[in-house]
Automatic annotation (TrEMBL):
Pfam families associated with the record: GvpL_GvpF (PF06386)
PANTHER family: PROTEIN GVPL 2
Protein's recorded name: GvpL/GvpF family gas vesicle protein
Main location: other
Record keywords, A-Z: Gas vesicle
Keyword Hydrolase: no
Subcellular localization(s) per the UniProt record: Gas vesicle
Family: Belongs to the gas vesicle GvpF/GvpL family.
Domain of life: Bacteria
Keyword Cell inner membrane assigned: no
Length: 270
């Protein structure tokens, strides 16, 4: 009798799902810069998952939970995840899965596909022929208000009254700039929502994460049919020309990460 412990089934990182060959899709070619030992596929009922074996030392339940607190590790995983999804999305309709979706062996992946079949199939149908565009609006308060650094009242202005008057003027200018930024963000979102088929408002990004200058006042994603891409881009108003101190940033077209609602999520317990 062999009392040796039975090894756990290997872990598979699941990047995305596409249609299987013969159902209008098939596994695309993807880059080699990935997380583990090379990409492969798992098929189930017309769906194909893009997967890769990954080490249990990093992706089993306990180490993964610890890694999720490590921003540098997460950034590396996110880069590899996005590279695979973006490459697949350039070739076929692709449903990206949540970052760090991990299953135990092919059986776990098939269970994931089986349980999420309806949502994944609906997403593939809904996301065919469309892409995501990201729009961010930033406010640079120093440019918008023209505010100068505060100085000591007596030395800079000759009197405390002049100093207080100047400070009150700066506060009013800052409030006006905040109102302009908020109003412009609402108007921009309304215009672009009408030019898209769907839109999502994300929470404003913190400067320490985005590392972009200015305060983020709009962080939105828009789902745009490929044939209406030019119409969408033409709808973007010249925000920076009209409002000094506001800066518009557009990115895309992307695989529609923000519009994937499948219910298909996995972890090492799958």
């Amino acid at each position: 009798m062999n009392d040796a412990p039975v090894p756990k089934e290997h872990l598979l990182y699941v990047y995305a799902v596409v249609r299987s060959a013969g159902t209008g899709g098939g596994p695309p070619a993807v880059p080699g810069d990935t997380l583990g030992g090379g990409l492969t596929t798992v098929e189930h009922r017309g769906l194909t998952a893009l997967v890769e074996p990954v080490p249990a030392a990093d992706f089993d339940e306990a180490p993964l939970r610890a890694h999720l607190e490590d921003l540098d590790w997460l950034a590396e995983v996110a880069r590899a995840h996005h590279a695979v999804v973006a490459a697949a999305g350039r070739q076929t309709t692709t449903v990206p899965l949540r970052l760090a979706t991990v299953c135990r062996g092919e059986q776990g992946v098939r269970r994931l596909l089986d349980e999420g079949e309806r949502g994944l199939t609906d997403a593939l149908d809904r996301l065919t022929g469309v892409h995501e565009w990201g729009v961010k609006l930033y406010a640079d308060e120093s440019t918008a208000t023209g505010a100068a650094p505060a100085t000591a009242p007596a030395a800079a202005s000759g009197s405390g009254r002049d100093y207080l008057r100047r400070r009150l003027g700066e506060q009013r200018a800052r409030r006006d700039a905040d109102d302009t930024a908020a109003r412009t963000a609402r108007e921009l979102h309304d215009v672009l929502t009408r030019a898209a088929v769907d839109a999502v408002l994300h929470p404003p990004q913190q400067a320490r994460l985005s590392r972009a200058p200015g305060r983020n006042v709009l962080n939105a994603a828009y789902l745009v049919p490929d044939e209406r891409q030019r119409e969408f881009l033409d709808a973007v108003p010249p925000v920076e020309e009209r409002h000094p101190g506001l800066r518009l940033e557009m990115t895309g077209p992307w695989v529609p990460y923000s519009f994937v609602r499948t219910g298909a999520e996995g972890g090492p317990e799958q």
